[in-house]
Amino acid sequence: MTGPFRFNDEVALIKAASLAADDLSSLLAGLRRASDSSIFYHVHHALFRRHFAASEMSNDFARWAWITLREEPLAERLAAVDPLQFRSIPEARDHLIGIVESYAGRVRFLARVPREHEFHFCEAQTFVFPTGHVAEDLEGFLRGIRGAGSGTIFHHFIAARHRVGLPDNDFSAWIEALGERDLADRIRKLSPFRYTLWELRDRVAAMIEEHLSHG
Questions:
Q1: Structural domain boundaries of the chain?
Q2: Secondary structure of residue 15 in the 3-state scheme
Q3: Checking DSSP bridges between strand 5-21 and strand 119-135, what pairing results, if any?
């Protein structure tokens, strides 16, 4: 029998990682040396912060390449990286390194930016705590998802994929365990690139509501 779904929230404490880049060469070196936590912050956690940014670029590396380096072709390639396609942070890191390495190898002049415009690598220390919302069935899950904050959606829909080591999210995994495979698959296909976290929450809620109304 499937156990209850316990909604968690998460907050992140951001700290500097003592790595900085002022051109593509030093960015490449930073990508190789940065911790997994730093890569996760700049690529995956950037999805959490995307709707607050001045740029539509989906990760911090793409945003810096676009706004500061003015390397638009590189920025577009980095922005096209879907972090949710990778099963591990090292796999995502290697893909980013490959993009920057290939691009830098074809550029004759690597522009260097002044110190105030350097890219500063950061890390996120994550704290997870229960929200108090527990769902025993799909109706209870719908009530919980309607009241979920952005941290809860990020924790269960995005961060979960690397926490459990599978290309899945907590919502779909639990709903599928209830025997609702079609609904789980529909939620699984939602893209955080297309929606903000609040929009993702509303889409999930709408899908469950529609499913229950036809049940």
A1: 10-123, 132-213
A2: strand
A3: antiparallel
- Cα 28 to Cα 100: distance, rounded to the nearest angstrom: 7
Cα angle, residue 184 at apex, residues 182 and 190 outer, rounded to 5°: 110
Query: Could you tell me the pLDDT band of residue 107, with boundaries at 50, 70 and 90?
Result: confident
Which secondary-structure segment (H or E) carries 111?
Answer: none
Q: Which two tokens stand for residue 211?
A: 């499913």
For 51-60, what is each residue's pLDDT tens digit? 544 446 679 9
In order of 66, 97, 99, the CA distances from 74 in angstroms are 8, 12, 8
Listed as own residue / partner, the contacts of 50-58 with beta carbons closer than 8 Å and 24 or more positions apart are 50/196, 51/196, 51/197, 58/193
**Per residue in 146-163, pLDDT tens?**
999 989 999 999 888 776
**Tokens for 43?**
């690529």
Is residue 202 within 8 A of residue 190, CB to CB? The reply is no
Helices and strands of the chain, counted as H and E runs: 12, 2
Q: Is the pLDDT of residue 9 over 90?
A: yes
Predicted TM-score (pTM) of the model is: 0.82
How wide is the angle at C-alpha 194 spanned by C-alphas 189 and 154, nearest 5°? 75
Evaluated on CA atoms 96, 97, 102, 104, the torsion sign reads positive
